[in-house]
Amino acid sequence: MRKLLLHSLYAITSGIMLSLVLPSDIASRGITLLAFIAIVPLLIATYKSRGYRELLWISILHGWTHAWMGRYWLAFFQNFGFTILIALSIGLSGVTFLALMAIKKTAYLPARSRVWAVAWIWTAFEYLRSVGFLADPWALLAYGFGQSRYIIQVIDITGPMGLSFITGLSNALIAQWFTTPTRHYYKHMRLPIQMFFMIIFLSSSYGVFRLHQSKKNLESSTEKAHILLVQQNLDSWNVTWSELVEEHIRAVQGVLPINSPLDMIVSSETTLLGDFHSIMSLSEMLPVSYPLATFIREMNTYHLFGAMSVNDDTYSYYNAAFLMNNVGDVTGSPYFKQQLVPFAEALPFSQVPFIGNMYRDFLGIPFLQQSGRDQSLFTLPLQSGGVLQFGVPICFEDAFPHISRKFVRQGAQALLNITNDSWSQRLSSQMQHMMIARYRAIETRRPLLRATNSGMTVYVNTWGDIAQMIPAFENSAMMVDLPVMTISMNTIYVLLGEWFSYTAILISLIYLIGAYNQSLSSVLSRVGKKFFRRERRAG
Length: 539
Known about the structure:
This protein has 539 residues and is of the alpha/beta class. The chain has helices at 2-21, 40-48, 52-70, 81-104, 111-128, 155-158, 161-179, 185-188, 190-219, 241-253, 276-281, 292-299, 353-363, 401-409, 427-444, 492-496, 499-516, 518-538; strands spanning 224-231, 264-266, 272-275, 302-311, 316-324, 335-336, 368-369, 378-381, 387-391, 414-420, 448-453, 457-460, 466-470, 476-483.
C-alpha cells in the first residue's frame, strides 16, 4: 500500500511538472528545464509498478492532474467547459496508459538499451496523440522550449518530435539512475550519456548556425509588405458582429495616421460573426457609427476578415478567411478551416446525410460545421509592385505542423494565423497558444503573423523570436513591416514531413516485437552486449 501511495505521488508530480513546461500562471513563458525531468517520476512509477491495474491507476492520476493543471481554462468554454475537461482527462489517461504499457514492456532490455527504447516510445506516443480526429497536440514535452533559442532550431529538420526525443532520452537516463542506482552508473551507461550530450551539443551548434543564416536571409530581403494586425478585446460569445467590427475600426483608428504605405489590414477569427455574404449585404448600413463598406473603401487597402461561410443546400457552415480588395470585392478563393475541434466543432461522420440529420435533430440546430478540403493560398498585391503569397491557418490550426507545412509546400512566403482565444479569459491560454504557434515559423523558415481577439497578436520571425507583440486583453493594432522572403529552397522538414516521427514509430515497434518474441529479444540483447563490449575495449 505504501508503494502504491508513493507511485501515485510520482504520477501526480509528473502531471504538475508537465503542465508547468508550457506557459502558466506561474511562468508566462513556461519552464524549459522541466521538460528534461518532467516525466522522471512517472517513469520510475512505471518501472516499479506491479501489474496493469496499478499502471492504469498511475495513468489516471497523471492524466487528470496534467489536464486540470495545464488547461483549467477550458472550463470557461461556454456551457461545455467541464465536459471538455473531463473528456480531455479521460482521453489523456487512456493514451498515457497505452504508452506506459509499452514502456513497461521494455523491461527485457539491458538498462543501456532501455533508455533508448523509452525515448523512442515516448516520441512515438507524443506524435500519435497529436494526429487524427481526436488530436491533442497541446501539452507535449516537444512544446516545452518556450525559453529556448538554439536547440529548438533543429525542428526545421526533425519537426517538433526531435525535441520530444531529446527530452525523452534525458528523462529516461535520469529515471534509470533512480531505478537501478549503482556505484558504476556512469561506466555502465557511459555511451547513452555521452550520446545525449553529443546530441545537445550538435543541436545547439546547428541552432547557432541556422540563427546566423536566418538573419542573413532576412537582411537580404529588400521588399517589405506593410501589414496592420488588429486585436480586439471583446467576448465574441456575448456581442454581435456589428460590435466586433466597431471594436476593429476603433483599433485601426487608434494608430492613424500611418506614414508608410499600407498593404493589408487583418482582423481576428470570425470578426464578422455570422455568414460572410449576409453580413456584407448589410455592410453599407452597419455598423451605424461607421458602416463596414465605407471603412473598407476609405482605408483604400486590402482586408483579411475571419467569418463564417454558410451553405444552405447542405445545411452546413465553414470557419473561413476572406481576402477583400480596396473596393470591398472578394479576391481569390476563401480558405476554410480544416482541422476542427473534436466534438465542439466536428462531429463524427456528420458529412453522411442521415447521420448529420440525426445530429441536427438531437442538438436542435439547423447547421453543422464542416471542415474544408482545399489548402488555398492568398495572393496580396503590394504597393511596391511585388506580391506576397501567404497561408491562413485558422484558430488552433497553427498547433498542427502539417497544416503550415502544406501551405509552404504550395509556395507560401508567410503564415498568417487568425484566432480567437478571448473565451478562455486567461493569459496562460493565450501564451500557450502563441508559444506552440512559434514552432511553425522555425519549422518552415517562414515569418508568422497572428491577429487575435484578446491575444496574443504577434510577429514571429523565421528563427522564432517574437519581434513585435500587442499585450493581451487590449484593443489595439500593430504595423508590421514584413520582409518578403525570396524562396530558394525549403527546409528538410517541409520537404520530408514527419520522417522522424515515423522512424520513432518503426523503432518502437521493433522494441515491442522483441518483448513478445523471445528469440528476437535474445538476438537484440546479444547484439547490444557485443557492441557495448567492443565500445568498452575501445575506451
